[in-house]
Structures are given as structure tokens and as C-alpha cells.
Amino acid sequence: MISSLLSRKIEKLPDEVRFEGRILYLLDDAELVRRQLEGEDIELTEELRGQLRDNISTDEITPAYICYYFDETLGLYPYLGLKAGNDFPIKQGTVKQGGFVASVSGTRRGKGSSREQSPYAEMMAGIRVVIAENIERIYRENCQNLGVFTSTNFALIDRIRRGDAIPLSEFTEGADEITRGIIEHGGLFNYNVARLQGRVRTPPIASHRQEEEPVRDALEIRQMRGSGEANYDEPRTGVEGAAEQFVATSTSNVGTDAIGAPEGHRHSGRRRMTIGEKIFARHWVTDLSKNEISVPWVQPGDSGFVQTDIRFSHEYVTPMAAIFFEQLVGPDEKVLEPESILFFRDHLTFLKDAMTPDRVQLGLLDVAGQLEVKQREFAEKQGVRLYGELGLGRHGSEAICHSKILESYAMPGQIIIGSDSHTPHAGAVGCIAFGVGTTAIFNSWITKDVRVEVPKSFRVVITGEKPENVTAKDFMLEILRHPYIKEGHAIGQVIEYAGSAVEALS
Fold first, then answer.
1. Which of these, 103, 260, 452, 482, has the minimum number of CB atoms within 10 Å of its CB?
2. Could you say which architecture CATH assigns to the domain 19-164?
């Protein structure tokens, strides 16, 4: 635990907040956008509301080449990719120079890539509030983690313009307890410091809220029935069978009545779990300040934090996370348990061979080179293992992050987080592995945990004898054709693979 954070003064935001600055409407009309950038304040009429840009992606907020920047310089570049009609009206520095405090758009704000550079660029340009008809989940969470307010309430616009005091509850309405806490603390970092200090505890999940009662086995249940079944030794079904056999399921059985049991008797205190749920339960953080880990069981929908076993990031993410760490924790502080952290130089190794001449002339190759430098220097300072570039004149990377994690580090039963979208690759060995954003990586360096919501699970069973010429890829291509997968029902779920044909792959 980083001792300096234990005495850090952390306060919640006041019950009311005020904003000083202008409103920027992101519109389909390029001329109206330019007029705002030049100093004109426009009124949001019904006609103008119909011109608000829909489907603004994070690639429009910060195009990929802008993501070579990783510090406050990003504040010069928000919305450079924003298309208004056939034009791109927003240029370098114009948003920051305009004194805007709020940004307004239409539907699906922040779709696409989960890059955290987008809300960070907006924040560094002075944007403190994002208002839209609806806001994509990952982008919204990234905003909240950084301390940028989000809302779908257009009635707030005039209040912001007038500088009115706005209840903080306007930005927490409908949020779960953890999200509300993050917003009230001004971001994930302050919230986690409060957790480290024991001032905040995440809300208990069902397994902690429920009053513990003795777990009755199948024999006891039959004796309670009084039907002479106590000597019945054959396998049972129903509740008795569940007590005798461990069956993987995503269906909650918390507090279910024992079939035929006298009134007042409950079969409680235990829940059958899938492999993934067992891993989450074992790693569940109940009190970060006391390092209390593990709960009896979890179920889909439970929200909280889980302790990680491995945390890794690559050069597109590590530098920004390092900037956050040095600014918020301290330039001379050390990350928690560096032996379980890994850095990789694998995403931009060949950039000098791929970048177009016009981008090179803009100096972007030199900017991108600083990503490698910052990651390498931070790794050396923190004592973190870095898989960098090949030496001896060879061009390339020492390792590809998600492949190396699977080959050399991942173990069954672990929880692994990484900044790469292919992080779930490591789940092949029976662990839980998933991708996270920059702020989550940075916070994991001080807490070793990460926020999660327990997902649903489903199992794919492949039976029969596997032909010699059939590979795992053939199985996957067939599985992808299944309506459950094809129609998107599997998104965000844990998949277990089983059956004789799957076993034959090993």
C-alpha cells in the first residue's frame, strides 16, 4: 500500500456545483460551429437541436494520430475529426481558446473505440460537462472516472450558461452506488484513495447482505420432511441433488425454498457458481483498507472491485497512465507490487515504416517516439518488466502482449487485466482476463484491483469425435454461425467450452 495516500486529504465535491464558461454545440452546420469558435454564443432552439450531430465517435473527438500525444497537449486537439456536413471546422487549439465549459451533441455520443484520450482531451480543453441525447457506456464511464460530468438533461444548459448552482444530484440521478461515489469524489482516483483510507466501502453484494444460516445437506432436508427418506441413498434431483452435486449455472438460487421443508427453513448461504463466478468470488474485495478479499459467492449483476493477479499495458496506454500516476500520486512514489505488472512495446514498433510522409512532416513520428521513451523510463524507474524492441539491429518487438501473457504468465483461476482488446485471449487457460482503460490501469497500480460487474455465463459443449483435420479455428467459425452468437447475445458474457471434442484439442 502506498503510505503517502493514507494521509492524503480527500473531500467530496460540494452538494452544488457551478460552471463558468460557454456552451459549444456540435452541429451538422460547419458555419455555425465556426461562428461559435470565433466567439458567438447561439441559442438552442428546436430547429438548432435538430442540427446537433449524432453518432459522434471517439475517433472524431481524437483521431488515432492525435493519440500519439499523452499529456495535457491533448487539450489542443479535441474534435479535430468532427465532420460537419462535408467540412471539418474545428482546428488545433480553437476549442481551448474559446473558453467552453460544456459540449452538447445529439444521440450516441462517444461511440466506437474506448480510447480515454477523447474525454481527457476534452477535459484539458476546459470541457467539464458533456450533454447529449444519450451517451455510450464506456465513454460515459471514462468521463466519470476522469471527473467530467455527463448528463442527458438538456434543461441544464441554460442553468450552466447563467452560472447557476446546480445540485450534484443532477449528475448522479439513476446511478448505482459505486458510480455515484466516483462522481461525488470527482473521479475514480479520489474515490479509490477514500477506499484505501477506509472512508468508503463498496456496497455489499447479496452474499454479504444476506444473513448467514446453516447450509443443510440433502440428508438433513430429507429428515426434515419426515417421510422416511433418510435411508434413501440413490442420487437425487431438485434441491437434494444440488446439495450433492456441483452444477455450473448462471441462475441465482439464493434463498430458494427447500422443497417440502417446514415453513421457516431455508436452503441459503450458498450459491452454485460457474467457473468464472468462482474466480470473481475468490478475488472480490470487501474492504480495501484492510485487504479483505473473497466472498462466499457472487451472481451476475453484482458490482464491486476484484483483486488482480496480473496487470499489463502497452505503449499506447502506459505513458498517459504514468503521467496520471506522477501528477496525482507523486513523481517519486512506487507502484504497488511491480512484480505483477508488465509493459509491452508492440503496437507502434513499425510505425516509422508505416507513417505517411505528410504525418512525418507534421512531426508526428517524433511525437509517437516519445511514447516508447516515456514507457521505458517509467519501467526503469518503477522496476517493471518491459518487453521492448529487439536488439542487435533486428527490427520488431520482443513479444506481443496478449500472446506473451498467455504463453508465459497466465494461470488457471487468475484475474488478468490489460490495456489491449485481445486480453481475453488468456482465458484459454481457465482464468478471467479482460481489457480496461487508462484510468483503470493507473488506479490498479495503487490498489491492485479493478471495478467489475459480474457478467452472465454460458457454456458451449462440443461432443463427438474430433476429425484429424479439424482445428479450434474450425470450431470457432461454426460457433460464430450460431444465432446466439450471431445476434449478439454473447456480448459481455463469459464463455465456457466443454465436451469430448474440446478435450481432444489438448
1. 482
2. Alpha-Beta Barrel (3.20)
